[in-house]
Amino acid sequence: MKRAACILSGVALAASLFAHVPVALAQNTKTPLYYQDPDGKPDYSPVPKKTTDGRDYVAVVEDQPTTAAAPAAKESGKGRILYYRNPMGLPDTSPVPKKDSMGMDYIPVYENEAEAGVVKVAPGRLQLLGVRTALAEERPAVTRTIRATGTLGFDERRLAVVTTKVEGWIEQLDVAATGETVKKGQALAWLYSPLLVSAEEEFLLASRMPASHGGLSVGAAALQRLRALDVPEDEIARLRRSGKASRRIAIRAPTDGVVTDKPVIAGMRIMPGEPLYKLADLATLWLSAEVQEADLGLIRPGQKAGASMVAFPGRMFEGTVDFIYPTLSRDTRTAKVRIVMPNADLALRAAMYASVEIAAPASGGSILAVPDSAVIDSGARQVVLVEKGEGRFAPRVVKVGARGGGFAEILDGLAEGERVVVGANFLIDAESNLKAALEGFAAGSPQGGAR
């Protein structure tokens, strides 16, 4: 009997042991969340690890209770922990519990909270930060103001050089100084030329010849010669009336303008084609503006431009884009744009420095646009923060088109009616915070928050 009792007792003990094996195996088959120091210290590892004295770190699984320093893997309605983020919003995440340099616990991010990179901000915090939003909406075409610098110069179409076609001597100057204003037909100087005197006498002689002796043809040839030598019509008329050749002939201004150069002086001998005066009509001037290469594609002839001069503070002069030069400067990467500037009151002068503004339509028709301040440009991409409601915001990569008038055209990434953050972007105290925000979003979603 005693032997039978021992056997039954052994069987019962074995059954009891084997009954607990599946439970232990089931527990051991769960994947550990991380491994904790065996003494309960706030030291964690995502992989198996040993202490300095050779003891194994303790595996922590989902259902296993944890210390206060290691937040539980699950909380009611939040799902499992995906990762831990820096409590100050820095670009640092951890797969295991961790403390920052000030001893603050890293904040667990649960699967039900990690909504495609969405960050949630308490309403009170929103008011404190002064977050403002605006709608992405259809707007008229964006007009962009292109700013440049430039210099005034003479209108090359209104320049004139006064010269003669004969050799002679300047006996008198009626206009003797650079800068004087002259009118078309005004006498500038008086020229004595033996060739002109001879041509006038030939004309008079031909005009006295009878028509039967070829007087008409000879007279026509003599008249043609006078005109070929640029003898003015009023001098030819005087010659016919008086019947006497003049010793000297007036050199007259071919156009209105001012004298910009006067190499001639009284008494000097001149040769055919030698410049005597240079005239410039100041009714219009050319403004040569240096436009950046990036803005060049928006400029078209006929666009309006405004220019302000240092000499006339507060006054804006208006002009029209006339021509875009075909080359760029290798050093400054700018192109010259010619703007025609009316100068009715002659206030503008050549070589004046100007600040230029050109109103260039950046696009045609209506466009989807957001305030320019909503676009965060990291260089490689442009991002906006989209309001999701209930204090939730998510970064969104967008494709930005033209900018102008305080707005940015959105080509892709946003839909009409979505709201974006335009003021007090709470994740953007500095560029480093922007990068931290985007990297933090990336850690919580396969979409990378804004990728």
List its traits.
single chain, 451 residues, conserved putative lor/sdh protein from methanococcus maripaludis s2 fold, 6-stranded antiparallel beta barrel
In short:
The chain has 451 residues and is α+β, with helices and mostly antiparallel strands.
Structural features, described:
With 451 residues, this protein is α+β, with helices and mostly antiparallel strands. It folds into five domains: 1-25; 31-110, no CATH class; 119-141 and 365-444, conserved putative lor/sdh protein from methanococcus maripaludis s2 fold, CATH 2.40.420; 145-156 and 282-361, Efflux pump adaptor protein, beta barrel domain (Elongation Factor Tu (Ef-tu), domain 3, Beta Barrel); 164-275, OB fold (Dihydrolipoamide Acetyltransferase, E2P). The chain has six helices and 30 strands. The chain has helices at 2-28, 123-129, 194-208, 215-228, 233-242, 431-444, and strands at residues 34-36, 44-45, 58-60, 74-75, 79-85, 93-94, 107-110, 119-120, 132-135, 137-139, 143-154, 159-162, 168-173, 181-182, 187-192, 248-252, 257-261, 269-270, 277-280, 284-292, 304-309, 316-328, 334-342, 353-361, 367-371, 376-377, 382-389, 392-404, 407-412, 419-423. Strands 8, 10, 25, 26, 27, 28 and 29 form a seven-stranded antiparallel beta sheet that branches. A hairpin with a 4-residue loop joins strand 26 and strand 27. Helix 3 (194-208) packs antiparallel against helix 4 (215-228).
CATH class of the largest domain: Mainly Beta
Number of domains: 5
| C-alpha end-to-end distance | 79 Å
Task: State the shape.
Answer: rod-shaped
Point out poorly predicted stretches.
Answer: 1-27, 65-76, 426-436, 439-451
Strand segment tally: 30
CATH architecture of the largest domain, by name, is Beta Barrel
Rg for CA atoms: 46 Å
Strand content: 35-45%
Provide a count of the helices.
6
- Oligomeric state of this protein: single chain
Q: Structural class of the secondary structure composition?
A: alpha+beta
At the third CATH level, what is the topology name of the largest domain? OB fold (Dihydrolipoamide Acetyltransferase, E2P)
Fourth-level CATH superfamily of the largest domain: RNA polymerase II/Efflux pump adaptor protein, barrel-sandwich hybrid domain
Mean pLDDT: 79
